[in-house]
Write a structure and sequence with these properties.
With about 190 residues, this protein is an alpha+beta fold. It has an eight-stranded antiparallel sheet with strand order 4-3-2-1-5-6-7-8. A hairpin with a 2-residue loop joins strand 5 and strand 6.
Length: about 190
């Protein structure tokens, strides 16, 4: 059958060459190649911070306390309205959510501030990206000496920038950046040799 297929293709190509010339033969060859070539796989985008949060909250409803990208997974800490805490991972390729740890008992004090915050982690990410364009790589709740804010790390090129977002007003303030990508926000560029 394979030999017959080649004979038919050769005969068809000869007829095309006689009737339509080289341009028609090239078109016939391209059409044949396209018909037999495997379909190209669609480009797949990684799950970004917003999609990771949405997936985590779908599996474990509540509010996000922190989010951090670590290689091929997002680590998402979620606090339910009743104060229970869960540590989830979200695969950056598939978006699948896995529960790493879930507390059985509710937390009496530490999580209440996060649950009661006027500005959520999702709103903080949007405010931070509006203040400094780039990709969110982490979000963390910070309750430092009574000052409550979200610390959002944004990566843009090889530079990581820290943006603090007030948990009450939603005001975003760029707090520092570094170009070596360690995210410490000290503002020191180590490019000088």
């Amino acid at each position: 059958m394979h030999c017959k297929h080649k004979a038919y293709v050769c005969t068809a190509a000869a007829v095309v060459l006689l009737a339509g010339g080289p341009a028609a033969a090239a078109a016939a060859h391209t059409a044949d190649a396209a018909r037999t070539a495997p379909a190209a796989a669609p480009a797949r985008a990684d799950v970004d911070a917003a999609a990771a949060v949405a997936a985590a909250l779908k599996k474990y409803p509540g509010v996000v306390e922190s989010l951090d990208k670590d290689g091929a997974v997002w680590h998402v800490d979620v606090i339910a309205k009743n104060g229970k805490h869960a540590e989830l991972t979200v695969d950056t390729r598939s978006g699948k959510v896995f529960t790493e740890n879930a507390d059985e008992n509710s937390d009496d004090g530490g999580n209440k501030a996060v649950v009661a915050a006027k500005v959520t982690a999702q709103q903080a990410m949007k405010a931070a990206v509006a203040a400094h364009a780039g990709q969110v790589t982490s979000v963390e709740w910070d309750d430092d000496n009574g000052s409550r804010y979200w610390n959002v790390e944004i990566k843009s090129g090889d530079k990581t920038t820290n943006v603090h977002v007030d948990a009450t007003s939603g005001k975003a303030t760029v707090s520092g950046s570094d170009s070596d990508g360690d995210g410490n926000g000290n503002g020191n560029d180590e490019d000088n040799n």
